[in-house]
């Protein structure tokens, strides 16, 4: 690169983006909050702008002043809490970024449902409700069971299946709070769940992978927390084509014009239906799975897109699969953990991490953050990789005292 360096602004990033930018010779500025200003978020940034929160009145004056001194070519974020601020900054400065209205539609699940319904696409009965009574009236019209989830929720937190009116009040634990929290109530969809990993450039969507999702399942609050993911998904070609076609059309309807996206889809008896979509990469190390299978580094391509550098979204066929499986020991105080050292001996295991040890209190799984580590492996296809992950997880034995269980509000 010659002349002045390409410079981009990253909002509340993790180190992956700043690392890739440094490797590409792209200069980065970071804006983040005091609470998140750890080294893992700052990475190799030339300058870090720290604010109390990412609201417009805090961020825009600071980044506008910085932009006058050292102009940015783009503003991006891949963290959920940074998506809307990044889009607003890009719009205010007139630089490259994801369309602010598209981000708002994908962050707000009620707006997403409204936009898809207006287009006659992936129609799912849904209504924003502020109380259990209002949600029950919706369920009486459309039938139980229903799904209740926060309009702007992340990490599968507070997502609950409600089978009848007696359980509805449990889905609205903060109904008396002011202001009342916003919940979306949707008809319950049956069928396996997948996610579609895409990258969009100038409105053209490239599908890089379809990921098979493994959920904890059951009737408890943990039912919709992911237990694991496998790439590529084991799908018949007609189902894969239908999922891809629906995702591409939905991204267009929602106005997504650039950057990575992660779209969750259920294949119901009536065909695929959108669960939700995000203008960022998937969590749970899904970008790592995608890179191992396709050769495409979503973090690097995001930096290239933001900086206006040449991109490569063509998958390199490797004839392999990759998977991740999370540890979810029973809640209680761990008295011992055995077998973790055996995992490294398994061929195909790429890495593993156990985040609990003897003496730790394991909470009930209510959201993604409650899981206790993972195993990531490769195999001849996604299912083989997941089978290896399952084998590795099975080597670890947790012993605990269930009499002492972490107590935390359902909405923590």
TrEMBL record:
Keywords: ATP-binding, Ligase, Nucleotide-binding. InterPro entries: ATP-dep_AA_Ligase (IPR052032), ATP-grasp (IPR011761), BL00235/CARNS1_N (IPR041472), LAL_C2 (IPR040570). Residues 113-307 form the ATP-grasp domain. This is ATP-grasp domain-containing protein. The lineage of its organism: Bacteria, Bacillati, Actinomycetota, Actinomycetes, Micromonosporales.
């Amino acid at each position: 690169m010659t002349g002045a360096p390409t410079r981009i602004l990253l909002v509340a990033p993790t180190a992956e983006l700043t690392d890739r930018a440094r490797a590409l010779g792209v200069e980065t500025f970071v804006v983040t909050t005091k609470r998140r200003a750890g080294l893992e978020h700052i990475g190799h940034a030339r300058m870090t702008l720290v604010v109390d929160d990412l609201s417009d009145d805090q961020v825009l004056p600071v980044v506008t002043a910085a932009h006058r001194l050292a102009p940015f070519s783009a503003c991006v974020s891949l963290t959920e809490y940074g998506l809307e601020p990044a889009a607003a900054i890009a719009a205010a400065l007139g630089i490259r970024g994801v369309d602010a209205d598209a981000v708002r539609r994908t962050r707000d699940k009620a707006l997403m449902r409204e936009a898809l319904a207006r287009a006659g696409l992936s129609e799912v009965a849904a209504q924003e409700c502020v109380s259990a009574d209002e949600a029950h009236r919706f369920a009486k019209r459309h039938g139980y069971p229903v799904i209740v989830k926060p309009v702007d929720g992340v990490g599968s937190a507070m997502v609950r299946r409600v089978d009848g009116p007696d359980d509805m009040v449990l889905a609205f634990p903060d109904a008396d709070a002011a202001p009342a929290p916003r919940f979306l109530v949707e008809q319950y969809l049956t069928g396996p769940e997948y996610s579609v990993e895409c990258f969009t450039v100038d409105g053209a969507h490239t599908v890089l992978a379809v990921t098979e999702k493994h959920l904890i399942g059951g009737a408890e609050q943990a039912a919709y927390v992911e237990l694991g993911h496998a790439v590529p998904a084991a799908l018949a070609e007609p189902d894969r084509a239908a999922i891809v076609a629906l995702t591409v059309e939905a991204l267009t309807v929602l106005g997504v014009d650039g950057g990575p996206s992660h779209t969750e889809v259920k294949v119901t008896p009536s065909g695929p239906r959108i669960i939700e979509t995000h203008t960022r990469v998937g969590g749970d190390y899904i970008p790592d799975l995608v890179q191992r299978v396709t050769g495409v580094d979503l973090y690097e391509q995001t930096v290239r897109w933001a900086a206006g550098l040449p991109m490569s979204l063509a998958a390199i066929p490797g004839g392999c699969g990759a998977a991740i499986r999370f540890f979810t020991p029973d809640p209680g105080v761990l008295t011992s953990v055995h077998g973790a050292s055996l995992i490294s001996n398994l061929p195909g295991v790429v890495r593993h991490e156990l985040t609990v040890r003897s003496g730790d209190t394991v909470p009930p799984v209510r959201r993604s953050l409650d899981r206790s580590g993972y195993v990531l492996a490769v195999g001849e296809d996604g299912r083989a990789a997941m089978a290896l992950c399952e084998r590795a997880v099975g080597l670890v034995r947790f012993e605990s005292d269930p009499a002492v269980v972490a107590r935390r509000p359902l909405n923590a």
